[in-house]
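User: Second chain of the day. Same drill as before.
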Amino acid sequence: MCYDETLPNKEHNFKCSKSAVARCGETLMREFENALNAEKPLQIIDFEPKTVSAFFNFVENRVIDISEINFELAILAHLYKIFPLFRICEKYLAETKTFSEFDIDNWINFAEEYHSIRLTKAILLWAEKNAKKYEKWEETVDKYEEFKKMVGSITLGLDKRYLLQYKIKEPEGIYLFPLE
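Assistant: Same format as last time:
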């Protein structure tokens, strides 16, 4: 169950099979068991209902519509340790996000917080083209120690993953699934 902030007192309920929850690992299973012991449904209150719906759709079906991927879904996946979903979100965001000087600080913080090498690599590609124009680049990066370490490992060639960047004009109906 989650709440819609735009409509006061509007609850959204989602159902998910026990086997799908168990397949996702201990963290999500524990959250459901704790809620069951308290005889209340699991409440996810810090996320939009459409994000929670996409999350449970992935838990149940192990597939995600790319039109539903956003940083909030990545955070929710990481919070409940659904790492296949997190990796899909991380990769998709790194490959498709267009950064700007107005949001780059938030994305650096996200990359550092969730230790995202892929997003760090995407930010570095943006910086190669834009850092000269963005006067606060050095000042912004200096605030993030872990980000600087990830930049170092990328610069030294320790991460060999290739990053394709592209734009999708109509994301509806394109689905991604974990390969594990």
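Residues 1-5 have pLDDT under 50 and may be disordered.

User: Great, on to the next one.
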